[in-house]
Amino acid sequence: MKKHKKKYLVALVVMLLSAGTVGARAVFANGDVIWGGESNTQSISDSLDKLSLNIKQKKDSISSLNSSLETVKRDLETSNGSVQTYKNSVSGYESQLSNLKAQLASKDNEIAGKQNEIAGKQNEIQQKIAEIQQKIDEGNQKVAAKQAEFDAKQNEFNAINQQLSESNRKLGELQNSYSQKTSDLEKANSTIADYAAKLEKAKNEVNNLKQKADRVVSENQ
């Protein structure tokens, strides 16, 4: 780019000098310099000063642009470095993600196996529960049958116990009646004994009176 600018300046000076020598009118397209065919050196010098100033401004502008360009290039390099860093990070994250996905798939398979195992255990437990429930139902039926049998025996026992109570009551009544009859019999026997004693006494008295009468009759014959 610097060589191109030098060639441009040399060509421009040559054109100015040529224009001053032949008196030609030169008009530049960029509007920086207008040459009206002046033949004096002062005019050419003023034009060269103006051109030099314009070139200096252009060079300053180009230098500023180059400085900005360098800044942008540094920023771009920094950005590229950051992008590369982010790419490396993304690559690392993608690798971690792939590993995590593989671990997740492995865990999913493991969980599926565990779920199948759990389902089998649940079915086994349900079967055991059904068997135990059947045993409980059968046991309850047997308990109900035994309870009915026990209730029947209890009712029979209560009936017999009631009959026994009634028999004991009647036995008590009979015992009381027997005791009363025994007492009455003892009283009657006592009365009969008294009557027998009196009768024997009366018989003895009658015999005595008869003997006495017989004796009296015999004495008076």
From TrEMBL:
The signal peptide, as residue positions, is 1-24
Coiled-coil stretches noted in the UniProt entry, renumbered to this chain:
83-219
Q: Which UniProt keywords apply?
A: Coiled coil, Signal
Please indicate which superkingdom the organism of origin belongs to.
Bacteria
**Which SUPFAM superfamilies does the protein's record reference?**
Bacterial hemolysins (SSF58100)
Report the protein name in the record. Answer: Chromosome segregation protein
Species for this entry: Pseudolactococcus carnosus
What does the organism's lineage look like at the top? Bacteria, Bacillati, Bacillota, Bacilli, Lactobacillales
